[in-house]
Amino acid sequence: MAHFIGKVAGSGGTASRPGTKATGIEAVVSGWGLGVRVEMNYNAEAGEDVATVYLTGGSHPAFGSKFLGDYRVADLAKVK
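The chain above was modelled as a monomer; its predicted structure follows.
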């Protein structure tokens, strides 16, 4: 059974994919020189979902990626 769901919409329509607690799920959205990658995983020890976010060079992998952080439900209260 899916624990995570990923959705993407573009000129080809909308698609969705499931992820389980065991597999997690990853999404990448890229422009020519800027993009983001988000990984959703389940931390069994803490009993919570964790979102890991990276800022990337988009379609230019030579630009690398920068780790922005790990986020949990409790972090929602900190965002303004």
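The chain has a mean pLDDT of 94.
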